[in-house]
């Protein structure tokens, strides 16, 4: 027998009548009139081909078959309520958001402050990591989303949302004599200069692009150190160890300790993205994206 028509609403009708053993009291609990409720129960009994309730002018009682049906219907209602509570807990739990450290200087700290100021109901648990680590954590459902830096990526377009774009700049010790009259610098100025870079394996394509721009102007800097952290890189530059190429946003934190200039050569931009596999099914994530994108790209 096909009982797809016997939905949660109809199960609730027979359960409430069974609990009250009165159609008038059941109708009151269900916020409906008694005649429509009586008719609904009769229709259910007719389609099931059995009598759930014995009715008289003075009482309503369950039949033997009715007791079995009502017990199963109660279980269905309890399971339905359990699903609703589980979904509520999921909706109310903090969002697990990963982010690369660079994103905090670029825009994320400011956006988190706005989120807190607005007393939003979006609670976020932040986790730092590099782009590769955070993407892996998202794919394993250990994170809801991650703010990452991507260059020539092949991720699905519907899972990646651009948040901000900025330029790379050259930073160097204040003691260096670099002509800043035009507020830009050619990479040829750094020929033979001590260079603090980062390991190629972090972003091979970007590393090779920067290297090629040096080669175009016949500039060969002297690589003295490879550092993963841009904050550590800036500290080394501030202490006269060499120059580096970093995103513009990190300079403001070290503006009293280093000099910087925009680069004349055509370097790729620094592109920040929000990566999320289940964006459409998460309303809080949609609101978070709107907040993050409120920063001008």
Automatic annotation (TrEMBL):
<dbReference type="GO" id="GO:0032993">
    <property type="term" value="C:protein-DNA complex"/>
</dbReference>
<dbReference type="GO" id="GO:0003700">
    <property type="term" value="F:DNA-binding transcription factor activity"/>
</dbReference>
<dbReference type="InterPro" id="IPR000847">
    <property type="entry name" value="LysR_HTH_N"/>
</dbReference>
<keyword id="KW-0804">Transcription</keyword>
<comment type="similarity">
    <text>Belongs to the LysR transcriptional regulatory family.</text>
</comment>
<keyword id="KW-0238">DNA-binding</keyword>
<keyword id="KW-0805">Transcription regulation</keyword>
<dbReference type="GO" id="GO:0003677">
    <property type="term" value="F:DNA binding"/>
</dbReference>
<dbReference type="InterPro" id="IPR005119">
    <property type="entry name" value="LysR_subst-bd"/>
</dbReference>
<dbReference type="Pfam" id="PF03466">
    <property type="entry name" value="LysR_substrate"/>
</dbReference>
<dbReference type="Pfam" id="PF00126">
    <property type="entry name" value="HTH_1"/>
</dbReference>
<protein>
    <submittedName>
        <fullName>LysR family transcriptional regulator</fullName>
    </submittedName>
</protein>
<dbReference type="InterPro" id="IPR036390">
    <property type="entry name" value="WH_DNA-bd_sf"/>
</dbReference>
<dbReference type="InterPro" id="IPR036388">
    <property type="entry name" value="WH-like_DNA-bd_sf"/>
</dbReference>
<feature type="domain" description="HTH lysR-type">
    <location>
        <begin position="6"/>
        <end position="63"/>
    </location>
</feature>
């Amino acid at each position: 027998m096909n009982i797809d028509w016997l939905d949660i609403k109809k199960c609730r009708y027979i359960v409430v009548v069974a609990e009250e053993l009165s159609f008038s009291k059941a109708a009151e609990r269900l916020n409906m009139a008694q005649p429509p409720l009586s008719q609904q129960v009769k229709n259910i009994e007719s389609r099931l081909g059995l009598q759930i309730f014995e009715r008289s002018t003075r009482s309503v009682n369950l039949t033997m078959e009715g007791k079995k049906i009502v017990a199963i219907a109660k279980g269905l209602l309890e399971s339905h309520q359990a699903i609703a509570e589980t979904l509520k807990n999921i909706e109310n739990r903090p969002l697990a958001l990963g982010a690369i450290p660079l994103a905090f200087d670029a825009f994320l700290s400011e956006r988190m402050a706005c989120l807190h100021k607005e007393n939003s109901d979006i609670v976020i648990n932040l986790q730092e990591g590099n782009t590769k680590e955070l993407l892996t954590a998202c794919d394993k459902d250990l994170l809801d989303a991650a703010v990452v830096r991507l260059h020539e990526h092949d991720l699905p377009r519907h899972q990646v949302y651009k948040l901000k774009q900025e330029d790379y700049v050259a930073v160097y010790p204040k003691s260096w004599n670099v002509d800043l009259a035009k507020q830009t610098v050619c990479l040829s100025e750094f020929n033979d200069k001590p260079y603090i870079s980062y390991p190629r394996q972090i972003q091979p394509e970007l590393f090779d692009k920067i290297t090629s721009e040096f080669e175009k102007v016949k500039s060969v800097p002297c690589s003295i150190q490879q550092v993963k952290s841009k904050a550590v890189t800036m500290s080394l530059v501030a202490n006269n160890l060499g120059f580096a190429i970093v995103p513009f946003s990190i300079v403001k934190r070290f503006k009293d300790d280093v000099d910087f200039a925009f680069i004349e050569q055509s370097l790729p931009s620094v592109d920040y993205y929000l990566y999320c596999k289940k964006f459409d099914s998460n309303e809080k994530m949609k609101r978070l994206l709107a907040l993050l994108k409120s920063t001008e790209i």
